[in-house]
Amino acid sequence: MDDSDVVSDILRAVRLSARVFGRFEASAPWAMRVPGDDYFAFYLLARGSAWLELTGGDTAIAPVALSAGDVVLLPHGGSHVLRDAEHSMAVAHEVGANSCPRPTTMETIRMGGGGTATTFVAGAFRFGAEGRGILLETLPPVLHVAAGDADMGAALAATIQLILAESANPAPGGALLSTRLAEILLVQALRVHTRRTYEANAAASDHTAHAQGLCALADPHIGAALRLMHARPADTWTVASLAHEVGQSRSAFAARFAELVGESPLQYLTRWRMTQAAEWLRDRSDSVPAIAQRVGYGNAAAFMKAFTRVQGQGPGAYRRAHRQRLLADSAPSSV
Which tens digit of pLDDT belongs to each residue from 309-318? Predict the structure, then answer.
């Protein structure tokens, strides 16, 4: 059976990039407000404690208590506040992407009233391509792995400590090293989330709502089907053929796939094919009919219709818009 790496495929296709903003030294009382943005923020606590409050969005999220050695990620971005204590009355220090330390210097930001100290590192992940796919879209608003959690694991704990150590003692090449470590941090945190949600689903009763998304990768049948679709997007897959490949009946496979992934097998397949096509339109000079063939469409017109439905514009317009953005980004600044 094909052994495609679904998470690596998705992160490559959405053009993940990491940025470590720097090290923050805060002394109680303190508070830091971060405005809403489309980036995927993360924080690592080196010492002390903090409270994280999400201040945007329609769903109320309970404040999260953070301690030394913890990592917390905000997969959907959004405005939030970090503070020294749950009911701290400190005036919030406004911090945005433009006021954070430059990642090339790892400069330390200091704030607060001189009391008990908390040290943390802040960073973010950005996606250079639109459309994260349902496996990332279904991540929770807050992904918190505490230092004392059984599922922290030695690898994730070591990565956290390496990032913290690099921020405390910047050296040549530190920006690149921190960026790569942050990417490793994300993959390891996603693995923890995958295991957690799959185990929670297994322990839940039939009448309890099940988590969806990356937990599907831990299911032996649905994970295998996802890997097949990623490895061989051009195959003429049907629900029946996928079910046969993974050793399930058609009805059982379709129900389980929708339960864990959040959409039907063929809906997922179409979205993945269009994600792959978008990547090739950006990165290669292949013709639209050639790309259509590579993602399983013998009819270019049918491919263009599907691409427009998923991406919001036709493949030709998508490629031109991407090239225009590249030209705009490479143009010298007038400032």
Answer: 999 999 999 9
Least confident of 7-16, 97-106, 129-138, 161-170: 97-106
Which pLDDT score is estimated for 3?
64
d(CA 158, CA 266): 39
Percentage with pLDDT > 90 across the chain: 64
Q: How confident is the model at residue 209 (pLDDT cuts 50, 70, 90)?
A: low
What pTM was computed for the model? 0.87
Fold of the domain built from segment(s) 219-328: Arc Repressor Mutant, subunit A (1.10.10)
The Cα 35–Cα 77 span in angstroms is: 9
Domain ranges of the chain: 6-200, 219-328
Options 3.40.50.300, 3.40.30.120, 2.60.120.280, 3.40.50.2300; which CATH number does 6-200 get? 2.60.120.280
- The CA-atom distances, in angstroms, between 124 and each of 27, 37, 57 are 23, 10, 19
Q: Within 141-203, where are the H helices?
A: 154-168, 174-203
Contact (Cβ atoms closer than 8 angstroms) between residue 282 and residue 297: no
Which residue(s) pair with 53 in the sheet?
A: 81
> For tokens 């063929």, what's the residue?
266
What's the token pair of residue 34?
A: 């971060």
Chain-centre distance for alpha carbon 259: 21
Which residues 6+ apart lie within 8 Å of 41 measured at CB?
A: 34, 73, 74, 77, 80, 122, 123, 124
Residue whose token pair is 């009382």 = 29
